[in-house]
Amino acid sequence: MDAKDRKELVAKLLSASHEKSSQEAERIRQEPHPSFEFIYEHLRSYVLSKFMLTPDCEADDIKELASLSLARTMKLDPDVIHSLDQATPCDHATSESTKKVLLLYAVQKDLELKPDAEKISRVSTVTELAEYVHAAL
Fold first, then answer.
1. Neighbours of 68 (CB within 10 A)
2. What would the DSSP string read from start to end of 28-78?
3. Among 28, 12, 6, 8, which residue's Cα sits nearest to residue 106?
4. 113-121 contacts, C-beta under 8 A, 24 or more apart
5. Within a 13 Å sphere around the CA of 13, how many CA atoms are in the beta-carbon half?
6. Bridge partner list, 93
7. 134 near 34, Cβ under 8 Å?
8. Do residues 31 and 131 touch, judged by C-beta distance below 8 A?
9. Tens digit of pLDDT for each residue in 50-68?
10. What per-residue confidence (pLDDT) applies to 10?
11. Residues 100-121, mean pLDDT to the nearest whole number
């Protein structure tokens, strides 16, 4: 596969990921009185889409999902990423931590939630994120 084909493939994958996560966010926003179970189901699908992971991924920890996402997109072992990754321009923040923060920001933006920095900063799993969203809605 040449560089042009690779760029087209990546563009298609990113577009599909964005479309799926947008649909899931819309489902949550449009539900008049969403139950926790409804939010969890669609938010999990949203997160997996954002991270370009398959629905059969069982992890709940957001950093673990971020690491799996990095491993998949970079075709590296998640343990290698975790042990070698420290971005010095970002005060030694890891890529998985950065992905987590960006995901939490995207959830608040896409679901049109009023930010609550204190509560969102304690979120570490998809289950906790669903609890945060459920309480915020």
1. 21
2. HHH-SS--HHHHHHHHHHHHHHHTT--TT----BHHHHHHHHHHHHHT--H
3. 28
4. 113/137
5. 14
6. 87
7. yes
8. no
9. 999 999 999 999 999 999 9
10. 76
11. 94
